[in-house]
Design brief:
Keywords: Hydrolase, Nuclease. The protein is of the alpha+beta class. The protein has a domain at 30-52 and 80-141: Trna Endonuclease, Chain: A, domain 1 (3-Layer(aba) Sandwich). Helices cover 34% and strands 12% of the residues.
């Protein structure tokens, strides 16, 4: 459809005042340690894992971060894309994992759209908040005994 902006190119919503809301830290493990633990586990099981650094913190002032983000989007960065791409030991075994903190880890609108896309095209997708959940997901995909 002409004139319609794809969801992955839309600008994030900003509060009406333009001020940032203070970030509230939820209890429980943060996302990064969960993701690192999942990577370590899956690699010890002989699976290949690649991280997608969509949540990376950019350096510089607001203007330079905005320019860099614009360039990264042109280079293929897509908001909401899953954190980990997992490749199994057999042809065609490609799945994705979205890692979330143990408490209050919610999917964004963009993450839900990516989830729906992967499921629609037949690639395994899972949202995990622990190493145990990641292991259960991989087993549910039929990749491990």
């Amino acid at each position: 459809m002409a004139g319609v902006t794809p969801w992955y190119l839309k600008k994030p919503r900003v509060p009406a005042t333009g001020a940032k809301r203070p970030r509230r830290k939820a209890p429980g493990a943060l996302e990064r340690p969960v993701q690192r633990g999942v990577i370590e586990l899956l690699e010890t099981l002989g699976l290949r894992v690649a991280a997608v650094p969509n949540g990376a913190m950019l350096a510089g002032n607001a203007a330079s971060r905005a320019r860099l983000m614009k360039a990264l989007k042109k280079d293929g960065l897509r908001p909401g894309f899953p954190d980990l791409i997992v490749m199994g030991r057999k042809p065609g075994q490609i799945g994705v994992l979205e890692c979330k903190r143990e408490k209050d880890g919610r999917l964004s609108v963009e993450q839900k759209e990516w989830r729906d896309f992967f499921i629609e095209v037949g690639h395994p997708w899972a949202c995990v908040t622990s190493v145990d959940e990641a292991l259960a997901a991989i087993k549910s995909w039929g990749w491990l005994a």
